[in-house]
Amino acid sequence: MIPKLSQFSSTFSTAPSHFTTFWRQPHRQAAKDIRRRWRRCALWILLAAWLALLLFAFAVLIAPTSSVDSGSQLACLPDDSFALDPSKFRFFSKSGFFQITLGFGHMNFTEVKTIDIAWDILVGRGGQALVAYISWRVFAQYVTTSMEVTPVTFGTYRTIFLPNGGLFVSTLCMIRDFVRRHGLHSKIAMVFMVCTMTFTFVYPTIASAMTGYSANVDAFIQTTGGEYVPFNAFSFAYFVIHDGSRIDLEDDHIALDKDPEKSNYQYLNRFEPVIPLLGSLDGRFSTCHWDPSRIGNRDFNSTYCELQRNVSRYAAEYGFNRGDKINSTFGGQLLPPPTLNISAPSLVRTTKYEDEDYDSYEDRLFRVTNDPSQMLWAYDNKTYDFNYLQGNGKCQAALDYKWGFSYIQLFIMVIFHIVWTIGLFTMWIRACMVMKKRGRGREDVAGENKAVFELAAAMREQMNEPTKEEGDDVSALTEAKLRRRIKNDLRGGSISYNTPILPNGEGGEKWNAIAWIKSHKLSIIAMVVCLVAMMINLFVWVPDDTGTVALLPLPTVLIAALYIGSTRGSRIVLFVWIFVLVVIPTQITVSIATY
Asked: Membrane spanning segments where (predicted)?
């Protein structure tokens, strides 16, 4: 049967409606949602980024950096003292409370002073203003909900809704009112508000005290000849060939960790020979034996590397300080008895079990001793032991400066910010939930103008009782008399909101977790999937250096889409377009930079 033309026309006529339903309508709704809610979404993302930054800073400060890694540090410790073993230094030592233990840069005095002044103004004063602004906005919402349960004094109301800048006095007055007069319905909230006000008051002082500048220092050693020599001129003395003349060297020849003729060989000379990670192959020693391809190709074929390998193999075969009456071979050269007299206090023989730990090294014959007192250093063909260098090492000021932080004070400041952020967020969430339950919104929170009327009305109502001094005319009372009566007769006064729970007097609906989960099950499933994808990207692809970061921001993208979008179609459209316009270009940029 041949279909009628009307059937074809009806089929094509329904196509635009399906297109509109599945494409145009979600995009139109998404555009409306963006215009209406993008600002609040940006604030949520900013809050999440701020909290993530604080937690990241806390993790970095608390974990491995509480001590110095001896494999990458200099002999001059962050507190400008000298130590051959930097790993013994602890950032949490009380002696470094006021010292700049996290310093950066090599600058002149003008540069570090400019940075210090800019920090005090922008972070100290600017941070105080920002902390005060955010805190008082949240306090106003919370106190509004509290005033519907219990009254507050005139002073507390004035401090929260009409701040006049006298923060120190306001804090003391609020403590007095909370303790002796009218407090809030939550004691925890009262303590937090007082602590926040104190934190706001001292913020510029803490921000300034935890930063500063000091001169950079360099490590020097006073040699046995009385001269001061830069510590980076010293080398590790791994082997001492006491009868070196038998192999065309001078007697007591020292096999060093680096070639003094090549400044770019085995770590630049600016690196100082501090005690390496004990019990391991030191980086400078192992360079001559490192063979990742295991095919014998050497990147460093210098005379010193060849000597170090020859001595290492000879000592492993014939031992130290033996003097055996046998023939021996050194670097292909046949030697008559006795064997060479070689010592190596800084090294010990590896065992067969330790060989497996160093399977990427060519010989795997020796490692650094676990006893620092047995190690030797060399300068000008003379050896120095641990005690001599530690006792004669000094850190002297250089001509340039560094700017940075006191580690302990920075750590404390990060903790303060975390507590402040979480506390304010909790207080704000609580206030929003209560206000929503009572049918109130942000517009019901008093601002400066409304607060003036509310405070004046409450004061006039409570002051209208006849006074012995001036009769019924309250306006005739002097400031001193008003202050005295509010303090003595009214005990600070009281102001509250006598508002029903809802405008019609009915109670609000209780929040039901099970019902909420059921109504948002698709969003919860999507968030779980995004979190799993982010974890795979973070712990699988990032360590492999693949340059893949596309899945890391998925939870943030989903949160933005869920918050802005008001319908399921709008949220899907927003998720896709945010991913396409933000995440994919970022991934392309990272891929180009990686490869």
From this structure: 41-63, 160-179, 191-213, 407-429, 522-542, 548-565, 572-593
